[in-house]
Amino acid sequence: MNLTPENEQENRNVVPFYRSGDYFFHRGIIAYRKNHLKRAVKLFERAVKLTDQEPVFHVQLAAVLSEVGQYERSNDILEMVLTNHGDDQSECYFFMANNYAYLGLFEKAEEAAKRYMVLTPGGEFFKDAGDLLDLMQVEQNEAEADADDEEDWESFDLSSDEYIIEHGRARTLLRDGKPEEALPILQDIITEHPACWSAHNHLAEALFRLGDDSAFELSRNVLQEDEGNLFALCNLAVFYTMKEDDLSASPFIDAIKRIYPLDIEHHMKVAQVLAAVGHYEQVIGRIMRVEPFILDREPDLFHCLAVAHYHTDQYEKALFYWRRAEKLGNKAAAEILEKVEQGTLLARDVEYRLW
């Protein structure tokens, strides 16, 4: 059919379908949460191309590039963000610190980590930045001792590099459900650095997940040496609860319930542990204090929030948060929603597990 002038005018008024930078950014977040890192990089690159002035897009691209080992390119992007937007994007310093550490540039890593902590006290990555500095401080102290003993500096430098990388690798293995692979790495770290309490806590977790009850003694030893260590308290609360020893778990749970950390990572950890041990009354309030942009990066918190709402008889809100978690790639939420759809969901199916 031939177009009339009227048809032509109507055709010119059709608005073409346009996918914005926001669209590709959110698709990238979903891909990242599903651990499709190469696809996430491509989607974030597209988002940056379409919305070049949005610093968050650049920072997220840099973070994923770091995870795929492109540390130098990641730092180039982060430096560009700081040049264009200044210290308002302070998280760039934290990401750069990690990149420098992996590249073996420890002085630059220390400088960047300290810069982040000065600019953002109590920020999202404050605890991680402190852990990184602690690791490098341990190595610096050992370097001085080695120098006194006239030991070879190059040998220490290699050890320093391996120490930081191996500790990070062990944590990643635990997150990926591979405690048996994390175990020997953590044991080696503790042999070399017996006062590294975070490694002790990770080792206790790995042992427990592998069915080794020496995890209890290890966690108690941490509390003896470092009184009030939050992660050791959390470990014992979870370990005893999973062993169905509520009496032994109770003092550790009560201690955790009295703690309101300023550090965001610790704050989220307490909420997740309280959900895992079935004390839901505080979970909702604690998670709702977390900034929305952090929640959007942590779909597991939406699942945690949904479980807490379910067990406090707020079923519609539970469904709302499970759907948000599923949209961001959370598998546990997806499994529960499938059972809801099938009409087979039972109360015993609704639990929050840390691992």
From TrEMBL:
InterPro entries: CellSynth/LPSAsmb/PSIAsmb, TPR-like_helical_dom_sf, TPR_rpt. The keyword Repeat applies. It comes from the Bacteria. Pfam families: TPR_16 (PF13432). TPR repeats lie at residues 21-54. SMART domains: TPR. SUPFAM superfamilies: TPR-like. The keyword Membrane does not apply. Keywords: Repeat, TPR repeat. This is Tetratricopeptide TPR_2 repeat protein. It comes from Alkalihalophilus pseudofirmus (strain ATCC BAA-2126 / JCM 17055 / OF4) (Bacillus pseudofirmus).
